[in-house]
Amino acid sequence: MSKRIAMVTGGIGGLGTAICRALAAAGRTVIAVDLDSRADRLAAFRTEVNGLDIHFAAADVSDHASCGALVRGIEDTHGSLAILVNNAGITRDSTLRKMSRGQWDEVLDVNLGSAFNLCAHAIGPMQARGFGRVVNISSVSGQTGNFGQANYAAAKAGLLGFSMSLAREVAGKGITVNSVSPGYIETAMTAAMPAEVLARICASIPAGRIGQPGDIARTVAFLSHDDAGYITGANIPVNGGLFMAA
Question: What is the distance between the alpha carbons of residues 125 and 16, in angstroms, rounded to a whole number?
């Protein structure tokens, strides 16, 4: 059997790179999708994944037509897309009273709209082939809310409902759709937080630490495995016990 083709959006960020590496280690051909405007970060990414079966494709995942061209281009160049990881995400934090409509729209378009855009183009071919794995990266903020993040939390909560609904639609076609909700993970985003704030957060996590990108990447690799076909519509919290729900 030929190698499964996987796409990871937000692929050159800290979390995205870890996911790409985990999927490549699991024997997938991986296409990391991101904007190509950060030349320094793209160069660093290519150094990090040198020697692995990981490739780069530039696209604006908030644009529906761009996503269609992206999916078609990947299938023409690499083969049938079997695994889709919707990891692209941005923040535009502000209290609601001060939040502009632009800040709201931008976060919703990237963090939630991109999942619709890509699934709308990728699901049909997956159904025709009788196999697919979709993993949507949500957040603990989508389960609990977070001060100053009404836009971000709304988008991440939306991914949970989107994942469950799509899972019901495609389960009979050999496609699983699941979400992963990270807690606080050691990335550039958390590194930018004030040290005292990060210390308070760590103290509130039962595991006693923030997570590592590999904690999320291993979960994504598991959900995208061929043998994970009976898990669908699930949300996997990876948060060190920060938020627990039955």
Answer: 24
Helix then strand then coil, in percent of the chain rounded to 5, is 50, 20, 35
Supply 25's token pair: 């280690």
Residues 74, 168, 181, 116, Cα dihedral to 10°: 40
Domain residues of the chain, as ranges?
A: 5-238
Rounded to a whole number of angstroms, the distance between the first and last alpha carbons of the chain is 39
**For tokens 């696209």, what's the residue?**
59
Average pLDDT, the chain: 96
Which residues are the active-site residues?
152
- List Cβ neighbours of 205 (8 Å cut-off, separation of 6 or more): 183, 184, 239, 240, 241, 242
With CA atoms as reference, report the closest residue to 121 among 56, 75, 179: 75
Query: Hey, what are 191's tokens?
Result: 């590194």
- What pLDDT score does 1 carry? 58
One-letter identity of residue 131? F
Which homologous superfamily is 5-238 in?
Answer: NAD(P)-binding Rossmann-like Domain (3.40.50.720)
Q: Where are the beta strands (DSSP E) in 88-243?
A: 132-137, 175-182, 235-238
- Which ranges of 28-144 would DSSP assign to H, the alpha helix? 39-48, 64-77, 101-108, 114-129, 141-144
Global confidence as pTM: 0.96
Q: What is the pLDDT of residues 18-70, one digit of tens each?
A: 999 999 999 999 999 999 888 899 999 999 999 999 999 999 999 999 999 99
